[in-house]
Write a structure and sequence with these properties.
homodimer, alpha+beta, Thiol Ester Dehydrase, Chain A
Amino acid sequence: MAQQQVLFLDDLAVGEEFHSAEHSLTETQINDFARQFDPQPFHLDNAAAKESFFQGLAASGWHTAAITMKLLVSSLPLGSGIIGAGGEIQWPRPTRPGDALRVISKVLEIKPSRSKPDRGIVTVECLTRNQDGDVCQRMEIRLLVMRRPEQ
Amino acid sequence: MAQQQVLFLDDLAVGEEFHSAEHSLTETQINDFARQFDPQPFHLDNAAAKESFFQGLAASGWHTAAITMKLLVSSLPLGSGIIGAGGEIQWPRPTRPGDALRVISKVLEIKPSRSKPDRGIVTVECLTRNQDGDVCQRMEIRLLVMRRPEQ
């Protein structure tokens, strides 16, 4: 892999895309996360999950969101880090054991701050897709991005 | 604790509130989550965090979201489980080691489904507050809630 360039506010352009590596989701990961943060039968137990709304074991949406963040941190090389102010999130379909997830991020808007000239808010769409290309999570997140520090 | 009543769509009322137990956030928890899902210096290393935007170690926003889900699962006793379709999330301030987090959930809207009479979408505001009452996360989440199954 080529050396990764570190990006600041002025380096970004609307429409620019970033593609992540893949994360392989396992049943053990789904169960471990659920035990800690979302202990519901359809995330913990195969038999109970089959009888549930999800019709089979599904990861917690917050697990999908956390994996998305991991993939984002390694694919969107912001010099000031990935600092989220907030956003909108949807889970059109669950993620499952065996899924290979990847994140495609696209810059939607760049708004320099009026009051703080060293920074801006960048809105990024992050689509988390499985191995079939299905969108399992759609997020529009507002990131705080700094301008390149003066040398 | 009194026996918890299980709630379905018709049992909920706009304005109704649910209060969670507390979760004590530790530095170890913050580091463990960050190593797995958000490996950035301000979530992993005290010294680096002091020099960062956060001016001290802060939990990943997704960690705060995951803890919120845990507190929600044990405080909002929906008979069909907590099934999120999506929502809007904001992190007005970070969560820190030593914080005692709790979630106050309020029903904002109840929309029976037109096409599927056995269910509806309930919008719930979840405020995650620290021990000083500061809101660290505000979420408006759309939950799929089933009607009570016929006997």
